[in-house]
Amino acid sequence: MTVCYNYTMPAANIVSITDKAQAQIAKLLSAEAKDPATYGLRLAIKGGGCSGLSYDLRFDNIDDKDFVQEVGDFKTFIDPKSSIYLKGMTVDFDDSLMGKGFVFKNPNATNSCGCGESFSVF
After folding, report:
1. Which residues are registered as beta bridge partners of 89?
2. C or N: which end of the chain has fewer Cβ atoms within 10 Å?
3. What residues have CB less than 8 Å from 71, skipping those under 6 apart?
4. 48: alpha, beta or left, given left = phi > 0 and alpha = psi -120 to 50?
5. What is the pLDDT along the chain (122 residues), one digit of tens a residue?
6. DSSP per residue, 75-119
7. 74-78 and 89-94 strand pairing
8. Structural domains of the chain, count
9. Which domain holds residue 85?
């Protein structure tokens, strides 16, 4: 079950993370040895990449303005600006022989690059 909360923003389920991706994130996060109450996975967008915007996944501390989703055993943090571009997105993990790691399925993207790490919305 995913719970999303923020004291200054309305609650919403912004992204979905598949079980396979959750397991990989939890494995990587456990090696960080940080406080799980304030430390988790940041999902964001930034300018750049071959399509204009790129996904930014990293472990980070919570910010006052973040949307916070509890996903499995960890929390995800999404800033308000990124939430506009990430709403409805699914994060998956491909570990097949030809796999490429985390996979982003974003219904807001009108175009994406071949590697799937950048996108545009125009």
Report:
1. 15
2. N
3. 2, 17, 22, 25
4. left
5. 444 555 444 445 899 999 999 999 999 998 987 888 889 999 998 876 555 788 899 999 999 899 999 888 899 999 999 998 899 999 999 888 777 788 888 887 765 555 545 444 55
6. EEEE-HHHHHHHTTEEEEEE-STT--EEEEE-TT-SEE-TTSSEE
7. unpaired
8. 1
9. 2-120
Q: What one-letter code names the amino acid at 39?
A: Y
Q: Domain holding 103: CATH number?
A: 2.60.300.12
Both tokens assigned to 114:
């071949």
CB 108 within 8 A of CB 89: yes
pTM of the shown model: 0.77
| Distance (Å, whole) CA 90 – CA 53 | 17
The token pair that represents 2 in the structure block: 């995913």
